[in-house]
Amino acid sequence: MTGSDGHFTARDRLASTVADLGLSLTPRQLDAFEMYARLLREGKREANLTALTDPIDVADKHFLDSLTVLGALPDGPLRVIDIGAGAGFPGLPLKIVRPDLDVTLLEATGKKVAWLQRTIEALRLSGVRALAARAEELAHDAAHRAEYDMAVARAVAPLAVLCELCLPFVRPGGRLIAQKTAAGATDEVPAAARAMELLGGRLVEVRPVKHQALPNRVLVVVEQTALALRDYPRRSGLPAKRPL
Ligand code: SAM
């Protein structure tokens, strides 16, 4: 099936690629992704949401890529925080496919958060919210500190920085799932050893994504073994400026 302009739609591309992740989406979920693609297109200029315009790229590099995280998520209800969610990746696609997840999208840029809030409403999703804050600050708020089963992040910072920004949100026994390229993980995992040690994290696995449309993608899975020390994350900007 093609869109009204004769081109493939994001919906149809996703419908044809998602089976190779071992997933099957309902017509309603596919409709939600098509609406998401349309809102991304319409909101692009207003909030600098994404550089991608081609529906196949949006389906592969945003939707499908986000859904690879499902392979590392346990079954059952979970509280998930997406750090630096941007236009909602990976958290919003995860929510569309796993309505049992409670998802918090954390994003520092107010314009993106306003767009995310409108998009959540348009998609009629409940159990998901977008918050405008920096991770360095929100992680010290008792309502969020060590309150999540899972933190997820894509394209936000090197792993050492992500450990400091994300692990304080995760309860002991919970996990950080960082989406990386294979080459990125090869460099970043050893460089994050000290950050993991200071934050209480333990590397569980670097899990290759098995999908031909997404070569060289991996999920870096870090378990939070203890409560993070109160000193972390350090003040805004410092984790990226002076990684642990
Ligand atoms: N995760 C999305 C994706 O993969 O498309 C967005 C990636 S974008 C390159 C990084 C986003 O992280 C930006 O929207 C930025 O505002 C946000 N960000 C960076 N550092 C942050 C922080 N310390 N706290 C909250 N958001 C942050």
UniProtKB/TrEMBL annotation:
<keyword id="KW-0808">Transferase</keyword>
<comment type="function">
    <text>Specifically methylates the N7 position of a guanine in 16S rRNA.</text>
</comment>
<feature type="binding site">
    <location>
        <position position="84"/>
    </location>
    <ligand>
        <name>S-adenosyl-L-methionine</name>
    </ligand>
</feature>
<feature type="binding site">
    <location>
        <position position="89"/>
    </location>
    <ligand>
        <name>S-adenosyl-L-methionine</name>
    </ligand>
</feature>
<feature type="binding site">
    <location>
        <begin position="135"/>
        <end position="136"/>
    </location>
    <ligand>
        <name>S-adenosyl-L-methionine</name>
    </ligand>
</feature>
<dbReference type="InterPro" id="IPR003682">
    <property type="entry name" value="rRNA_ssu_MeTfrase_G"/>
</dbReference>
<comment type="similarity">
    <text>Belongs to the methyltransferase superfamily. RNA methyltransferase RsmG family.</text>
</comment>
<keyword id="KW-0698">rRNA processing</keyword>
<feature type="binding site">
    <location>
        <position position="154"/>
    </location>
    <ligand>
        <name>S-adenosyl-L-methionine</name>
    </ligand>
</feature>
<dbReference type="Pfam" id="PF02527">
    <property type="entry name" value="GidB"/>
</dbReference>
<keyword id="KW-0963">Cytoplasm</keyword>
<dbReference type="GO" id="GO:0070043">
    <property type="term" value="F:rRNA (guanine-N7-)-methyltransferase activity"/>
</dbReference>
<feature type="binding site">
    <location>
        <begin position="107"/>
        <end position="109"/>
    </location>
    <ligand>
        <name>S-adenosyl-L-methionine</name>
    </ligand>
</feature>
<keyword id="KW-0949">S-adenosyl-L-methionine</keyword>
<protein>
    <recommendedName>
        <fullName>Ribosomal RNA small subunit methyltransferase G</fullName>
        <ecNumber>2.1.1.-</ecNumber>
    </recommendedName>
</protein>
<dbReference type="InterPro" id="IPR029063">
    <property type="entry name" value="SAM-dependent_MTases_sf"/>
</dbReference>
<keyword id="KW-0489">Methyltransferase</keyword>
<dbReference type="GO" id="GO:0005829">
    <property type="term" value="C:cytosol"/>
</dbReference>
